[in-house]
Amino acid sequence: MNTVTEREPLAAAGAAEGANALEIAGLQAWYGESHILHGVDLSVARGEVVTLLGRNGAGRTTTLRAIMGLTGRRTGSIRVGGRETIQMPTYRIAHCGVGYCPEERGIFSSLSCEENLLLPPHIGVKGAQGMSLDEIYSMFPNLAERRHSQGTRLSGGEQQMLAVARILRTGANLLLLDEISEGLAPVIVQTLARMILTLKARGYTIVMVEQNFRFAAPLADRFYVMEHGHIVERFGIAELEGKMPVLHDLLGV
Asked: Which family does it belong to (predicted)?
């Protein structure tokens, strides 16, 4: 597989000097009357890959949705590149350089693969450049071959590639990826793993929600484990082996 590495790493355009790419403190979130997140604290350095682990219903997807302003009420602090976003609407959060790839992918079935890629506007912070179609097709040759195919005719793996590629076109440099490996063939999962390593080398910051521990473990710099809307464990890759008994108890890994 070809990867695109010729660009310089992404600059942290628009970010406060020395600020983390993402800093969350005391985050509470609700869906209607349901209180889902209970004081979540986490930080992600620029260029880091962080994985949120936990069982279904632990609050991982809600954390990503809260970052994007897609939950109901939310309180606390969410800083993107040092800029407070807790009161911002979703479109303004996106213009801070945040791209969200939801589990349901959101492919427009009536549009071709290439039309899906061309649809999103540039939303990245000033100075950030989205990937060109040539770069996308170099990273995902399958999409080049299927560029004229309708969204409904793409396989599940191709739809997942398209969903990720679409946010790369926007200029976002903080990527929120929700279960991108779920239900996909091993060869597609390997392609997505190589993509994440390529993006990391180019300076992207990535927060992943993953059930597939074998996929996430070699890619992440740090891990947060969630349970019932709380962060219950946090550790770096160097501590992973020692944390395996804890992960087995919490996740069944």
From this structure: Belongs to the ABC transporter superfamily.
pTM: 0.89
Amino acid at 144: A
Question: Cβ distance 202 to 154 under 8 Å?
Answer: no
3-state class of 119 per DSSP? Answer: coil
> What are the CA-CA distances from residue 145 to residues 42, 149, 158, 190, 225 (Å)?
40, 9, 10, 19, 39
* Residues 6 or more apart whose Cβ sits within 8 Å of residue 214: none
**22-31/49-53 β-pairing:** unpaired
CATH of 46-70+90-251, one of 3.90.1170.10, 3.40.50.300, 3.40.630.190, 3.40.1280.10: 3.40.50.300
Q: What angle do CA 156, 137, 181 make, to 5 degrees?
A: 30
- The owner of tokens 């997807």 is 61
Are the C-beta atoms of 60 and 226 separated by less than 8 Å? yes
Q: Which amino acid makes up residue 35?
A: H
| DSSP 3-state of 235 | strand
Q: What is the C-alpha separation between 242 and 223, in angstroms, rounded?
A: 13
